[in-house]
Design a protein that fits this description.
2 helices; alpha/beta; 7 strands; two-stranded parallel ribbon; 3-stranded parallel β-sheet; 20% helix
Length: 100
């Protein structure tokens, strides 16, 4: 092999595998529910939840995803994001489960 070939191979091995950029999934425009967005997400993705009331429970399914809202943290703002687990279950349930 030529020295250039060895340098190229060493550089590619050093860089390792190339990971695609994290996707951003918006709820409800890209997925109608937060759980639906988590279901389609892969590790590293970001789920952005827009204001509204979401009647569901969430299970991260062992995935390394970030779920965040867009509503401001100002307590005077009316637009809020609410996950209501009580309305979706007859018995009280956990709102969020981290399970792998």
């Amino acid at each position: 092999m030529k020295p250039l070939d060895l340098t190229l191979i060493a550089t590619l091995l050093f860089l390792g595998p190339v990971h695609p950029r994290a996707a951003t999934i918006h709820v409800p425009s890209d997925a109608p529910t937060i759980q639906g967005a988590i279901d389609t997400a892969i590790d590293g993705d970001i789920v952005v939840v827009h204001p509204g009331t979401y009647i569901e429970t969430l299970n991260f399914l062992g995935k390394g995803v970030v779920v965040t809202g867009t509503a401001p943290r100002d307590s005077t703002v009316v637009a809020r994001t609410v996950v209501d687990a009580m309305a979706s279950e007859e018995e009280p349930a956990s709102v969020v489960t981290f399970e792998s």
